[in-house]
Amino acid sequence: MKVKKERKVGRVIGVILVFVIAAVAGVFLVQYVTKTGVFRVPGKLIFEESVSDAEKEEISQVFANVELEKDVVVAAKSAEEWPKLAEGEFLTEILVPVTDFYDVREEVSEVAEAEWISLRELDFRRKLLKVDGEYFLETFDKGARYRVISFSSEKYEEISSRVEKEFFKEWPTRETVLSFAQTGVTAFSRRMNAKMNEVGNGEYFAEKIGEFLSRFDITHTSNEASFFAWPSTSGTTGTPICADNRFRDTLIAIGLDIVELTGNHNQDCGDEAARESVDFYRENGISIVGGGKTAEEAREPLLISKKGTNITFLAYNQSTAGATYDATPGANQYYEENARMEIAAAKERGDFVVVDVQYNECTVYASETEDATCDRADSAAGDQVGLFRKLVEMGADVVVGTSAHQPQTFELYQNGAIYYGLGNLFFDQVYWPGTTRSLVLAHYFYQGKLLQTRVIPTVYDASFQTRVMEDAQWFIERLLSVRP
Is residue 40 scored above 70 in pLDDT? Predict the structure, then answer.
């Protein structure tokens, strides 16, 4: 009986062993067939030829010490327009063409004609160029080269959170870039009043420039003429600088957001006209800088906070008269101590600082032939170069002269940029070629950083309809040839 029991136990144990061995063999067989368990082959990164060495290095770092279950295939492609991204695709780089700040070129037609840098590296010290007529900071989907990296895997979910964290980037778009147009002298008066009586409406004067200026998020001008019911229509230079009330519609037509009142003619038709003009600006949501109904108002900095960018805008009348010192309307008188404190306070807030100055005027442009004397920054009485550079030394990021009736040169200085004079946007001075021109400064900001300032010349004629100047390279070259 004992032997039989032992045999029976032995058979049971044998069956169990066979079952265990079969089960273990089955597990190993399954692992072998499915390449799991001890037979699992770890996934690996597979780079297609389209991926550059730099991109391979960056991606390899991201996946360092990561055990993949499945292979991950990485590919790359370039595009000339903003790409539509599928799952696993990421826009990892935008390259834009740049040249030297003082280069007069506006456009690049061949890749080799420009240096291509990451959009993240772009700032106002380099000049952004158009590509086939397209300017990236206006189109945001053309005028650049776009780089896309794609990741594909049989088990994409195992890498999705990692690649989305590492390779998703926010890029400047029309919704996040702040565009700010600064323009020069506006003085609706004299011959323009006579033209107003002829055409009968203010929109006429903005027909060729209104759409262009209105498309900026912020549009500025330095208006030197208060509105008045009975302005002079004479062309004599000595007559008061007063604007027909209907010119209010011209400012609305250009989409004006900021009016600078540092000019020396806003009191030409009396304090009441100046006050009523201030009321018009406020009633129409137009911010005021550099002037006001009282000296206290005139001194107030204009604080701009829009699209993630904070700007302190300061404006002063340095020497052309028209300032207020009491409870009467007028311009903000320049005092170095005030400017120093106000710039320092703005920098303490972390703001970008723009300073406009109504400086002495150069009058050599009063010539019926081309006279480039006023192109220079040292053409007016006093040390314009010294003052404007001192403002940069105080901390101003951009300094602009808004008194010049003829455009002046511009330069980079230390950590800022200086535009010595913008010329006439709207005025009746058609008798001298220099005074029919102006510069529009198109600033583009992203998250508080000035990406670019584009210099765009304008011109008008006896029609008094200002327009963007065509083929303006010769003019920019002339201005830059006399920079300090």
Answer: no
Torsion sign over Cα 338, 343, 349, 351: positive
Distance between CA 394 and CA 400 in Å, rounded? 15
- pLDDT, tens only, 147-157: 999 999 999 99
pLDDT value for 319: 86
User: Residues 6 or more apart from 447 whose CB is under 8 A from it?
Assistant: 176, 308, 309
DSSP per-residue codes, 143-158: SSEEEEEEEEETTTHH
Name the CA radius of gyration of the chain, rounded. 33
Which helix (DSSP H) or strand (DSSP E) does residue 399 occupy?
A: strand 398-401
DSSP states along 196-221: HHHH--GGGGGTTTHHHHHTSSEEEE
Pair type for strands 242-244 and 226-228: parallel
Distance CA 269, CA 230 (A): 9
Question: Whole-model pTM?
Answer: 0.90
pLDDT in tens, 278-305: 999 999 999 999 999 999 999 999 999 9
Residue 127 and residue 482: Cα distance in Å, rounded? 19
Q: Are 298 and 291 in contact (CB under 8 A)?
A: yes
Whole-number Å distance between alpha carbons of 76 and 50: 5
Spatial distance between the Cα atoms of 171 and 168, rounded to a whole number of angstroms: 10
